[in-house]
Amino acid sequence: MARITGIYTASHTPVMLNFPDRIPAHLRDEIFSAYAAMGADFMAGKPDVLVVLSNDHLHNFFLNNFPAFCIGCAESYESPIEHWLHAKRRTFAGDQAFGAFLLQRALKAEFDPAFSMEMVLDHGSLTPLELAGMDPDMPVVPVLINCVQPPMPTMRRSYNLGRFLGEAIAAYDGVERVAILATGGISHDIATPRMGMVNEEFDQTFLGLLESGEIDGTIQYATDFVHTAGNGCEEIRMWMAAMGAANGARYERTYYRAVHDWYTGIGIGRFAV
Amino acid sequence: MANWQEAMPSTRAYLMDKVLYQLHHNADHLEAYKADPDAYLARFDLPEDLARTIKENDVARMYLSGVNPYLLRAHCIGVRIPEDVSLAALRSLLDSKDYNNG
Fold first, then answer.
1. Chain B CB contacts of A149 below 8 Å
2. Secondary structure (DSSP) of A25-91
3. How far apart are CA A9 and CA A186, in angstroms?
4. Where do transmembrane segments lie in this chain (chain A) (predicted)?
5. Which of A53, A219, A271, B18 is disulfide-compatible with A238, CB 3.0–4.6 A?
6. Which 8-state DSSP code applies to residue B97?
7. Cross-chain residue pair A195–B83, CB shorter than 8 Å
8. Is A55 in contact with A147 (CB distance < 8 Å)?
9. Across the interface, do B1 and A194 touch by the CB < 8 Å criterion?
10. Where does chain B have alpha helices with state H?
11. Which residue in B3, B17, B21 is closest to A227 by CB distance?
12. How many domains are there within chain A?
């Protein structure tokens, strides 16, 4: 019976690594410190494995074959895949048995995720892990949600997937301690006319709802207003899944700032599991 | 404005997506494209106006084709269109003050 040691949510953007100098040094330091603090908190829980909820940005998947959900069942994952990303190449260890357990249990629970035995993790998974300074040898199980190409799974379905994951992790005997990191969001536009116009009002309302513990209200707000906060904000599906896995645990934001020159509302927080 | 131009991608968008995807996921493609854009683009069964849009780095028209924004973004960085040029091209399409009212 595995215990969930922590559930974290954090934005990701390749701009942090590619164009760090587009924002003032003091702001950059503040943001990087917030990621490092999350990493320290994460490591204090002494997890054996990390389940990373993220999204593929059309690297592993293309429109010829695009899964709504995909569970990684590989022995290892190379990263990053983007030839243009300013990041050191690295290989993450996978946990094939754990991935396979989640996959099979998901099918029994009438979710129908795809699976992959060979994926390359992109900046969505890599950036927050890199900035948080997490143990580079910790095995990961990626769970990817399509947030990048309509049509996409609903916010509620993503929440329900998270609820399933929380229960399935608790039922797993192969490891003792599991942490969850949900990456992506909050408000941002990628390659649209609004790019750089962060909708801070959306982000504040969204974070406030998460902190209030109103699960249905949060799902409804995400569903009804995500279109005001940019195509990148569709990635809050991972936050929905984290909320599902948290199963009512209190949410607390540890950092938020609308960073226009990084095009992103940068939010970091955790569920007090 | 909405987050997406197309709730389901059109064939035109798909064709554009395919070029940008291939270009940045195959080791020798970017070099081949840079060496001879016309020859590279001729490998794809693209409408002529879409091929021209790619060749001219016309970010605004690429966006309007319905191309996936992540592929467009990766392409802009990958072929080194200056960040401020691609931003300005996209921003030139913003025609409404109530941009975040959907």
1. 9, 68
2. HHHHHHHHHHHHHHHHHHHHT--SEEEEEE---SSS-BTTB--SEEEE--SEEEE---TT--S--EE
3. 10
4. none
5. A53
6. S
7. no
8. yes
9. yes
10. 11-25, 29-35, 37-41, 48-55, 59-64, 69-78, 83-91
11. B3
12. 1
B47: number of Cβ within 10 Å: 14
Q: Is the ipTM of this complex over 0.90?
A: yes
Across the A/B interface, how many CB contacts are shorter than 8 Å? 95
Going across the sheet that includes A264-271, the strands are A114-116, A69-72, A140-145, A49-54, A177-183, A3-10, A264-271, A251-259
The b-or-e profile of A167-196 (16+ CB within 10 A means b, else e) is ebbeebeebeebbbbbbbbbbbbbbbbbbb
**Structural domains of chain B in order of their starting residue, each with its CATH number:** 11-91 (1.10.700.10)
Whether A70 contacts chain B with CB within 8 A: no
Range of the domain at A110: 3-271
Going residue by residue through chain A, which has 273 residues, state the pLDDT in tens, using 9 for 90 and above: 899 999 999 998 888 888 889 999 999 999 999 999 999 999 999 999 999 999 999 999 999 999 999 999 999 999 988 878 888 888 999 999 999 999 999 999 999 999 999 999 988 888 888 889 888 889 999 999 999 999 999 999 999 999 999 999 999 999 999 999 999 999 999 999 999 899 999 999 999 999 999 999 999 999 999 999 999 999 999 999 999 999 999 999 999 999 999 999 999 999 999
Query: Which is nearest to A35 in space by CA: A122, A134, A123, A121?
Result: A134
Q: Residues with Cβ < 8 Å from A194, sequence gap 6 or more? A: A230, B1, B94, B99, B100
Asked if B4's CB is within 8 angstroms of A82's CB, the reply is no
CA distances from A64 to A1, A58, A135, B99 (A): 39, 11, 35, 32
Instruction: Report chain A residues whose CB lies below 8 A from the CB of B25.
Output: 59, 81
The CATH number for A136's domain is: 3.40.830.10
Of residues A149, A199, A229, nearest to B68 (C-beta): A149
